[in-house]
Amino acid sequence: MVKKRSKSSPSNPQYTLFLGCTVPVRVVNYEISARRVAKELGIHLADIPEFSCCGYPVKSINHYAYLLMAARNFALAEKKGLPISTLCSACCGALTEANHEIQEDKSLQKRINDDLYQWLGKRYEGEVRVTHFIRVLQQEIGVERIVEEIKSDLSSLHLAPHYGCHYTKPTTIYGRIEDPENPKSLDELIEASGAKSISYENKLQCCGGGVLAIDESVALAVARSKLDHIRAHQADAMVLLCPFCNIMYESNQRKIEKVYGTEYKLPVLFYPQLLGLAMGIDPDELGLKMNRVRPTELLKKLNVRAG
Amino acid sequence: MIHSNTLDPNFKFLIAKEPGGENIKRCFSCGTCSVGCPIREVTERYNPRRIIRMALLGLKKDVLQSEFIWLCASCYTCFERCPQDVRIPELMNAIRNIAVREGFLPPSMRMQLELLSSFGRLLEITDFENEKRKTLDLPPVQAKTEDVKKILEKLGLHGEEKVEE
Q1: Is the pLDDT of residue B117 over 70?
Q2: Which is the most buried residue in A110, B33, B119, B145, by most CB within 10 A?
Q3: If we measure between CA atoms, which residue out of A50, A131, A61, A64 comes closest to residue A98?
Q4: ipTM of predicted complex
């Protein structure tokens, strides 16, 4: 029996959980499962109900408005004295990039602070760190520790990892935490759960979500091609880590099937849901009932009661 | 046919002054961006090499009023591969920022601004969401914030219909 790290130890990771726009409305199952595995692994997640949108959607409309929206969120986290951990990869990218820009340009930082203070009574000193929740699992908890926590046998599962774009790129802001042309972290995290991570054609392709609002048919065409590639490998499910990628592959799966006259029925799991299953956590506590493409067959394979 | 007297030679300098557009003049049209582009793969309407070439030539109006500048998905594939570090997704955002100032804001983007003004988020958090969160033992989320509206109003992005189609 492996002894767990004390849940209140000061050496345990502590973050504020940044939900963004999509998670609390469209994919609460991601949030539930992330909080559940965090609790089990001793990651402390504080909440700031006043967090707004990260600012990403206005980046294309007005760059400065984007920086101000991001800075407002930083000011809230800074006041709480905690780094930010996001569930959404686009939030992570947008916040990390805005943070870089503000931290590296003192005159810009001053202009932002003047406006933040005058308009909203807030200040940002540039002290907040931003990371993705999955990076906390990978870098701070680590694969070795995760392996120690595994209680269920997932070796019968063949899973298709989807990294998405903003989890590894651009390397100018993330640094080269891993090769964006050949990332391995999600494969390693999947393998740590005991399941097989499969390789497939065009594995690093974008979900198309970035243009969903502008042109739905283009976005669906991009998402479709990956669903085709994964189906060719008969994967039990796709595993991902971004709510927007999930919207493209799971929420829009039925629509893609209709438009292209085909059928996938491919379950899509958020990585914390997979990890939770491997840790022996009840599927209900991982929000699996909320998955739109029911992972019934997958759970049957694991001899776990279907949610 | 492009007529040289309709070209605006200053367009590239205007873009280069915009955050994200700084490296546009480095482009030597190799096409690495278009080759690996996931949007280009499914539609002929988006072609980053072509857009950059048009911008460098000075086809200002054709670029700014086009729908194709809005088709970049910001996947950063070309950003990582560009041998000249043109930073294409940021460049597209620079061009879009100029387009918005010139009055070309796509209706779906206008709608996103409205939502952000109203709720501080793209998706509304209603009592229903917070009730559901309560039953799931999740902490409440503030339904809306006036702060985002204030930011957008102060920058002229909300309120009086400044931006026309």
Answers
A1: yes
A2: B33
A3: A64
A4: 0.95
